[in-house]
Write a structure and sequence with these properties.
Helix content of chain A: 25-40%
CATH topology of the largest domain in chain A: Aminopeptidase
Oligomer: homodimer
CATH architecture of the largest domain in chain A: 3-Layer(aba) Sandwich
CATH class of the largest domain in chain A: Alpha Beta
Number of strands of chain A: 21
């Protein structure tokens, strides 16, 4: 079905719209619903094509193919597209612009089209072979040949693929919102800029350079970030900031060669045991970070923040039930906990388990960590605190493998590497005029006030953009909260894609101030 | 060169032997040296053929091929050979017997022909592609095409392959000792039985059944175990026992699906962190086991044990230098530490590191442990102590993955599996008559008193045999102590094989009482 036919098919939903000079408040949802109803198979075809493209940014050729695909999709929709790179041999960022005659505002939409690495065990189907299943993993879902089933398909079905929720869903929803508007002859309310990054999941190592090199191109009155999952309550939410992030890898050294643990276990140091003790020195069981002065720079929530947090519906009981958690590590509500920094242990690896287990003392133990930072905390300060603390605990901190002389001299050696791509926390005031205009537009589409979250727990390379562009930023997410982002079996629920198209239709056609 | 020619080649070394009715005290070394000198290429051909046969007992067909090879080698040398199995589809054990007319004693030699699993990273050459190098790994050795170099080859060269030191070296040395004796017309001093196991590195799960089923076949006046490395001083050593061993795997559970650690890191329990704390509850940094009552059953060393320990040359300074250890976890001497049990952390695995690292809270953390037990400690008692302790710490201990109801009920869940194939410690008194006869035979060959070690730190399925057969047992090892047994790049130094042939020649031809 082509677009002119689709426009005819909208029927009564648009009769209302055409009777008024501006689109009526609740029309964006109807425009989107009509589009989805008449184009479901086409949308799923496009989305699964997009998801089938490998997109882990450690392989630049893969992300570049995604960028080329997006460029062509956006040009088809009337955008002027440019591929931005910080330097040759770095992943592409897609910039696209669509001017609206007479518009006085410009909104920049950010999303990323690269995905997390996929080496996790337990993928039920290959990460880049999008597979429809009848529901969430916990329901033991069946695989469905969706092409053999006529629309409308069950909206609780889910598409399993890397980047389905994080973050290709946002891009697909925006593309279809544009299509829905065009089919119903609804014009954008402001100038639109798109900024689609290709290495967010690698920590956005080149984003600052791209922003610095393209300051005028990227300038906008509001930035809307599509990345991230929806609120656990299922209600639409606008967030006003995100925590910062920085990662580190620690390698603890033991004997220079693996040792039989019968002969040497009572005598030689064990890097596995040393790593366990090191971790307990960094973090308490309740999540408190034990690094001295770590909380000194934390900015506490304001009274407005506290009021917004208090207005959020409770989700903890549902989460405990859904995730199989008997007792969280804190008595704080989930969203309240975002105002404190977190130290996460992403991974620990020493020796072999299972059939390959050897009775050996390993030569080293690896562990990988990330810190989530609150407003006020600076990565450079965190590095100093961590390194000083490790030294105060008796660790000899190195930036590379120790020499034999080092090993003979220092009883506790740890090699420390900080990840590239750190970011600081970023906040937009809750009463920002542009942000509140977006809140109004989405609330109208939803038919109910959206939730306002002062800060999400996750992080975004967008912090860099905000620092560079000084524009207010909000986050509007559409992916189901249980989308397994960053893990095996990432997925997007169909209803979230359909609702997301409506949300983007509202933003693109009604947001103005 | 065939064996009759080799006998002629022995020359003056045997002139001495033939002048006496019994082989003179130091002749066994000369017999062995003459054999090696004239057959070095043949020995290396045989040994590398043996090492090229994959031998990890998780693949029964592989160990069976080794068993068939040994059967044929032993039958060629006049042995009556039987393949013993505890049950169909279990690995073969090779039993062989050679009677000596007029002998009143029988000595059973134990070794194992299976090797440790080989999945460790860092093998410089494939584990079953024996590769000659010019020395120890720490010397950055070059690969040598040994066939292109005439004998005598540099005895500090090493053969790198799985099982080179642990424990095919013992078998190869014994086979060549038999060849050396035959070539010099030297007869065995006693009846010889060989018992070559095929699943020692899997914890000898069927050894007890085989012993129980073949009690008369295996009966002997002395058992000599070839497994294990030599003393770190390089001096020949006889050991009088070994510690027991038992292994366990713990899996700590977190949320039922992986969670984005930005959104949930401050709220959801982390199995990585919980595992770190669990490990610190089990073992102190200095190696002390923190499980209550763990030391209650430990039998301390006797006065004779203490005297033997005190007579051992110091090795600790050399080991620290060689292994790159600034400070051992104990001030005890290495051999003294064997009289205490040890808890080793063999492996920890949670999440992914490196390029695959994901900012996720893992669903579970795996760790693998072994206990080395001293005389007096019983595996069943250890199991009770461990399980009670975990429960006292607040862990809900399961024998399988938790149900969703379990997860919602218990905040700390650990799945515990005990390895099959546990063994207890075993000791032979230092003044045992048969053992002291072996000490004399080897001392004569060495031209110096051998070291007597009351107990090694490692373990042996032979403990089961001793329990079943009630024969005294000693250990006589020939592999270099730095043979990387149980790890990547296992290797045997050529000099150790040549010296080992001499040691076995002495045992086979002179041991009697």
């Amino acid at each position: 079905m082509d677009r002119s036919m689709a426009a005819l098919a909208l029927g009564s939903a648009l009769a209302l719209a055409s009777a008024y000079p501006a689109v009526a408040k609740d029309v964006s949802r109807q425009v989107a619903k009509a589009w989805v109803a008449s184009h479901e198979t086409q949308i799923l075809d496009e989305f699964t094509t997009f998801l089938a493209m490998p997109d882990v940014a450690t392989t630049i050729a893969d992300v570049d193919k995604n960028a080329d695909y997006l460029k062509s999709q956006l040009e088809d929709r009337g955008f002027k597209v440019r591929i931005l790179r910080a330097a040759p041999d770095t992943p592409a960022t897609v910039f696209a612009e669509l001017r609206t005659p007479g518009a006085k505002r410009t909104v920049l939409y950010y999303a990323h089209y690269d995905g997390q690495p996929t080496a996790q065990k337990g993928w039920l189907s290959p990460p880049f072979q999008p597979t429809m299943r009848t529901g969430a993993l916990s329901t033991n879902p069946a695989v469905v040949n969706w092409r053999a089933v006529p629309a409308p398909r069950d909206p609780s079905w889910r598409i399993y693929a890397r980047a389905a929720g994080d973050d290709k869903a946002s891009i697909e929803a925006l593309l279809n919102a544009l299509d829905a508007m065009k089919s119903a002859d609804v014009k954008p309310s402001v100038n639109i800029k798109l900024f689609y990054e290709g290495e967010e999941e690698q920590g956005s190592p080149h984003l600052r350079a791209i922003v610095d090199q393209n300051h005028d191109l990227l300038s906008a009155d509001l930035i809307v970030m599509g990345d991230g999952p929806m609120h656990q309550s299922g209600r639409q939410l606008v967030n006003f900031g995100s925590r910062g992030v920085m990662g580190m890898t620690l390698t603890v050294y033991g004997p220079v060669r693996p040792l039989h643990d019968g002969h040497y276990g009572s005598w030689a140091p064990s890097p596995a045991v040393d790593m366990a003790y090191l971790i307990t020195c960094l973090r308490a069981e309740n999540g408190d970070i034990k690094i001295p002065h770590f909380y000194d720079d934390v900015t506490p929530p304001s009274e407005a923040d506290k009021a917004a947090l208090a207005a959020l519906p409770p989700v903890e009981a549902q989460l405990k039930e859904n995730l199989g958690i008997a007792r969280p590590i804190t008595t704080s509500r989930l969203a309240d906990s975002y105002f404190r920094p977190t130290l996460n242990v992403r991974a620990i690896h020493v020796g072999d388990t299972g059939p390959d287990a050897a009775n050996a003392i390993a030569t080293h133990a690896d562990a990988s960590f990330d810190f989530r930072l609150t407003p006020g905390e600076q990565p450079e300060r965190v590095k100093t605190l961590v390194e000083s603390y490790l030294e105060s605990l008796g660790w000899h901190v190195t930036s590379g493998p120790p020499t034999m002389e080092d090993r003979r001299t220092y009883s506790h050696i740890v090699e420390l590497h900080w990840d590239a791509g750190e970011s600081t926390a970023v906040r937009t005031p809750l009463d920002d005029v542009a942000a509140q205009a977006a809140v109004r537009a989405i609330s109208a589409e939803e038919g109910a006030p959206v939730l306002e979250l002062p800060m999400v727990g996750a992080s975004s390379g967008m912090a860099e953009i905000v620092t560079g562009l000084k524009s207010p930023m909000i986050g509007v997410s559409i992916a189901n909260f249980d989308d397994n982002q960053h893990a095996e079996n990432e997925n997007l629920r169909l209803k979230n894609l359909w609702d997301g198209i409506a949300v983007y239709t509202a933003l693109l056609s009604e947001l103005d101030w």
